[in-house]
Design goal:
By secondary structure, the chain is an alpha+beta fold. It contains 16 helices and 15 strands. The strands form 5 sheets. The chain has a 5-stranded mixed beta sheet with strand order 9-10-11-15-12, sandwiched between helices. Strands 4-6-7-8 form a 4-stranded antiparallel beta sheet, covered by helices on one side. α13 packs across α14.
Length: 514
């Protein structure tokens, strides 16, 4: 990863229209750290005097970074205070409407006015579905850790909770050694016409940690999101022009508060506070999830053990665009999916997965409580296992075990849990091997059989060897993307080869559908 340093090739011209290219704006972010430092003193063999060489400071770049950081500090405070008017004042006249609306939505969400408006609408017209509100927020000078307070007896209780509070939320200029790029000529011309004296495509880190409906809430480590912001200077002040989309790049990744109508409610679970974030028209899902999450956490712990946080962040969406933006699944058939678990990074030193979110699709509104419970237990198993799961681990184990935990105790017959697989087995169409990763694509014809087959592999191992050995199998196989090491893990956990596992599973399947 790049570290901050001085580039002696760059000098401050009388008029600049350039910027620094940041790292690509992605959710799988990493902390970029380090600084330019003096060269170690060089001792002379003929003298006791030591000489020190230092890297010259580029005063222009230092002043530019300081000026931009002042604006970012103001922006961070205005956003988390929920003050849409202060946010708008920090945006440039050339800011695109979409970016301006996104920043305003963030301020409105942090103010809590959206969920309050929804609650008021429900209380006055109970038969009318609530819709998203973009009403301007009232200015607030309170800080990020302000208490959520208690509603008065006459105020309606928001069905989806209150505003989302954060433990940390700040934009800051990021260190980089990447070469500068120019602002596109058409945008630069407009900035020039507005009287701007400088522009910069600044590398930025958004650092945040969720709280919940109150703080500390879920009490998570900081998530770091790398992005670019185009900044423009007027005198001693800087304004925000937009994100990378203003220069033809990808916009900053969507965060919970970027979408209108965000609400949050806290749920007590075994590891502390869990949080359910939600959007308009998800009140029924939120109510069901509140009841189901504590027991779902306990069910996962009963299988996995207590060496995971035993708390989580759930997100209920009502529209495909909401799910796609938060789950980063553009192009996926949302109707064919139930949920997705996403995360920012895995800190292997501390054995913690940072920024994990269980995002429910709009289809969750149609689930019964029992079906939603299966989904929650499945996804929370992913949360529990994340730190020991390699990126290239085979899906037959990484999906099969969560399916097993999710469905445990919910069926009487094999066909109740795996109806499509049961029909195939009954017709003599036994699987010839463990399901391949390609078979799990949610918009493929093979996905249903693949998930049911993966579940059945886990169910077979639990039935034949016990749940402890099934967990041991997961820990070994899911820890690597190397097929040879996966085979060794099967032998270590079960005392049989991969071929013997497949053969035993096939025989077990035939006994289940008789």
């Amino acid at each position: 990863m790049p570290v901050i340093g001085d580039d002696t090739r760059r000098r401050a011209p009388a008029r600049r229209g350039a910027g620094i290219t940041a790292l690509a704006a992605i959710m799988l972010a990493a902390v970029v750290a380090g600084c330019a430092s003096p060269v170690e003193p060089a001792a002379s063999s003929s003298s006791s005097r030591a000489t020190t060489t230092t890297t010259p400071v580029n005063v222009y770049e230092q002043q530019r970074a300081s000026g931009v950081q002042r604006t970012l500090d103001e922006l961070s405070t205005a956003l988390r205070d929920g003050d849409a008017n202060r946010v708008d004042a920090l945006l440039d006249a050339a800011t695109a409407p979409a970016f301006r609306a996104r920043m305003r939505d963030t301020a409105v969400n942090f103010s809590g006015s959206a969920v309050r408006a929804e609650a008021a609408s429900r209380s006055t017209t109970p038969t009318t579905p609530a819709t998203a509100s973009r009403a301007p927020s009232s200015p607030s000078r309170s800080r990020i850790a302000r208490p959520s307070g208690s509603p008065t007896t006459s105020a309606p209780v928001p069905p989806r909770g209150t505003a989302l509070r954060l433990d940390d939320f700040r934009y800051q200029v990021a260190p980089t050694t990447e070469a500068e790029i120019l602002v596109p000529p058409d945008l630069q011309q407009r900035l020039d016409e507005q009287g701007s004296s400088d522009s910069w495509v600044a590398p930025i880190e958004l650092r945040y940690a969720l709280g919940g409906a109150s703080t500390p809430g879920v009490d998570e480590p900081d998530v770091v999101v790398d992005m670019q912001l185009v900044m423009a200077r007027y005198g001693d002040d800087w304004t925000v022009v937009g994100d990378a989309s203003a220069i033809g790049g990808d916009p900053a990744p969507t965060q919970l508060w970027d979408l209108p109508g965000l609400g949050a409610t806290d749920v007590s679970t075994a590891g502390g506070t869990s949080v359910i974030a939600s959007y308009p028209d998800t009140a029924v899902v939120v109510e069901r999830a509140r009841e189901l999450v504590p027991g779902s956490v306990d069910a996962v712990t009963a299988f996995w053990g207590d060496d995971w946080p035993r708390r989580a962040v759930l997100v209920a969406t009502a529209r495909p665009a909401e799910f796609s933006a938060l789950a980063r699944s553009a192009g996926t058939d949302v109707a064919a999916a139930a949920a997705a678990t996403v995360y920012s990074r895995v800190d292997s030193d501390d054995d913690v997965a940072v920024g994990q979110r269980v995002v429910l699709t709009p289809s969750a509104a149609r689930f019964s409580a029992a079906a939603l419970g299966v989904v929650l237990r499945h996804e929370l198993t992913h949360v529990a296992a994340r730190v020991v799961t390699a990126a290239g681990a085979p899906l037959w184990i990484t999906e099969g075990v969560p399916e097993y935990v999710g469905r445990k105790g919910t069926y009487v017959r094999f066909a109740d849990a795996a109806p499509d697989l049961a029909v195939a087995v009954d017709a003599g169409q036994l699987p010839t091997d463990l399901p391949a990763d390609a078979d799990f694509a949610v918009d493929s014809d093979t996905a249903r059989i693949a998930y049911q087959s993966a579940w059945s592999v886990a169910a077979y191992v639990a039935d034949r060897f016990g749940e402890d050995r099934l967990r041991e199998l997961y820990l070994g196989v899911a820890a690597t993307d190397d097929p040879a090491r996966q085979g060794e893990a099967i032998a270590d956990a079960l005392g049989i080869s991969r071929a013997e596992l497949v053969a035993g599973w096939r025989r077990w399947l035939t006994t289940q559908v008789r």
